[in-house]
Amino acid sequence: MNTPGFGGYVVAIVLSWLAFLLILLLVTLPIELLEIRSGFGLAAIVWLASYVVIVGTPVGVVGATIVHLMCRHQPRQWVHVLAAGGAAVLIETSVALLAGAQAPQLLDPVVLLVLAPMTLAAMVGRAAVIPLVHTRAVHRPNERRAAHMRPF
After folding, report:
1. Is 10 exposed, middle or buried (0-12, 13-18, 19+ CB in 10 A)?
2. CB-hemisphere CA count at 13 Å for 128?
3. What are the helix (H) ranges across 40-104?
4. Are 63 and 88 in contact (CB under 8 A)?
5. CA–CA distance from 58 to each of 64, 89, 91, 95, 141 (Å)?
6. For residue 84, with 0-12 CB atoms within 10 Å meaning exposed, 13-18 middle and 19 or more buried, which class applies?
């Protein structure tokens, strides 16, 4: 009852994609506009959006699973939001290490410039579905009691 449910996690993942895309656009658009060539167009936006969905989907699914398993009995939603950020850092660091990065390379400013927006996007996505948690609690007041009464 302390989680947004399957649909809520899907919404959180999609909202985290949008937050990450917005952050990428805010970071790259001013840089591109200052340059003479200004090749930033619809194709670049489509490429960025594709990148966000391709990278964000597995990270989001694994992160949502981690947050759900860790926090399903925790009523304080800010803990869920922090856990989403922590899960994002854990997953991103694991992927970087599996890809061959050395531990000192993880502190590189370029890596941190990618890690920070992804972490922030995960936290924004989870924070955005907090109202769904409260809605679920109102519409299913006996869910917790019924779950404990099931024989299997």
Report:
1. middle
2. 19
3. 42-71, 77-98
4. yes
5. 10, 14, 10, 11, 32
6. buried
User: Residues 131, 126, 98, CA angle at the centre, nearest 5°?
Assistant: 165
Burial of 95 per CB tally in 10 Å (0-12, 13-18, 19+): middle
Residue 61: its pLDDT value, please?
Answer: 92
Report the Cα 1 to chain-centroid distance in Å: 21
User: Residues with Cβ < 8 Å from 81, sequence gap 6 or more?
Assistant: 123, 126, 127, 130
- What pLDDT, in 10s, does the model give residues 76-113? 999 999 999 999 989 888 887 887 777 666 677 767 77
Distance CA 150, CA 84 (A): 30
Q: CB-hemisphere CA count at 13 Å for 146?
A: 5
